[in-house]
Amino acid sequence: MSPSCRPSSSVIATTSIYHLPPTCVAKAAALLRGHPDHLESYLCQQYSVQALWRQGVEKAEVIAASRDVTPTNEPHQSPRTRYVMQLLGQVIWEAELCASTSQSQADLFERATPRHLDRSRGVDRSSSPEARVVADGTCVRSKLRPRPQSAGIRKKENTEEFGLGDLQRWESKVSFALYMKAQHHKEKQERARLRNSRIEVVRANNAHLKQEQAEQQQSRWQCRSKDHQERVARSKGAKQELSELMMNAAAVRQAVLETNRRKLVKEQEESRSKRIEQETQRQHEAEQKRRALLQEKGAGRAKLRATREISHKQAARLERRFS
């Protein structure tokens, strides 16, 4: 796997057990089912140590967490078993990726190494020093030819051969190089100053815009709050006015009912008194008639006997009625 396609250690550390490679999960289960020494020996390997360091986990933590944990073939494991299998699977995946990455880098180095520098092929040292030949037929520089001087010796010799004009030219070139370096430094400082000024202007504009937005939001909130308070006041006033109207209507209705009741009571009293007066008048008239009849009965003729009996019955009926 190339380093560009390799998932990062943070991605591996956040990968759930359900998304880990099945081979890593199976290997983790096998290590947990086996002897504890097998797990410890696996964690002591080179790529396992590197994987533990990349995952930020200590070997003692993994061993302590895997103690008394035995995976089963059931689909639902306990939370502790799932956690240990997930942790060990992540370490195994990281170790396999480290191993594959180092192997791919070694292969890349083998492909990039020239064939005439391949040490596995070697040089035939038994040949003569005048013409040594590599195993694949490439010739090595013969010792009969003059060997070129090193750069340090050539520089020393050239320095000794320098004249006054060459020294002046060298000093002018050095001064020009220093001047250009200073100019470049000034230009970099100017560009940095301009960039910082632009950044400050943008920050100031952003701060001003944020302040304006906050003020607008505050004003809108105040307007909404004021409108809400006005609506509440109007609603309370309308409800209070309606309540007063209803109370007035109830009071008027009660007054009308009371007036009607008093009027009815007065009419009933008047009709009753009138009826009593009429009955009293009738009784008085009947009494007068009875007395007249009694007088006639005591001193009158016998032909008035039937009339006296009728009057006596009417008087008895009236007495029973008003008694």
From TrEMBL:
This is Uncharacterized protein. It comes from Symbiodinium pilosum (Dinoflagellate). Residues 208-237, 265-323 are annotated as: Disordered. Residues 224-237, 265-294, 306-323 have a biased composition (Basic and acidic residues).
